[in-house]
Write a structure and sequence with these properties.
There is one protein chain. The protein starts with a helix and ends with a helix. It has twelve helices and no strands. Helix 1 runs antiparallel to helix 2 (about 25-30). With about 260 residues, the chain is mostly helical. The chain has one domain.
Amino acid sequence: MSVWQAMILGLIQGLTEFLPVSSSGHLALAQMLIPGFHQPGVVFDAMLHVGTAAAVVWAERRLILRWLTTASGWRLIWFLALGTVATGVFGLPLRHVAEAGFGHAEEVGIFLLITGAIVLSTRFLTGRGSTETNMTWKQAAGIGLAQGLAVFPGLSRSGTTIAAGLGIGLDRSWAARFSFLLSVPAIAGATLVEVVGNRGQLAASGHAFWIACFAGAVTAGISGYVALGLVIRTVTSRSFHRFAWYCLPVGLLVIVLGLGGLL
């Protein structure tokens, strides 16, 4: 994998992590098209996610600093911790099953169709509800469980968690922002699991692999920062559901190409 290939994959990751079109699905498809692509486990993918997590931290840095200095803010930090635990309850047992799907285009296509249906459902959700001031622990746990299900390539994490947030009564803007913030500890945990689980292969991977990881992560962070603002605008303007009209035909196309042996 060259640095340029890593940067292209980083661009794909950054743009699709927050847009409800599944970054994992798009990464899996892009990697199928790169001759001889290989990574220890999904370590490279995890590093790209670190880049998008950094974009969230930078975009929400004022909010995070305010939380760290107020009692009400620490309450929400505990909610993020609770949501992360809920994610782990679902996500960790499914991790190895989900990783196997990265090599099967048909599975990616099926989950893209599911993503499309989930995103389309947001058209019918009012999003007139709880904000950061009156959110409950049950809502935080519910969104965490939804995030845990999004380990499968093709099933959008942002689409799933934002739809879950709207469905359990969060305000539209807050549903999007809490979804993004909840991704940060989940990404940190998943990255740690991948690095520890593949430490032997990583030790033998050489400097070229880590340079590619760095280039991809930086590209993912920059493009992800741009995508963040776009998603918040579409959620608050009630046009978020329109991303379904991308996921549904692409999902069908991927299934057809996969069954035809072209992916």
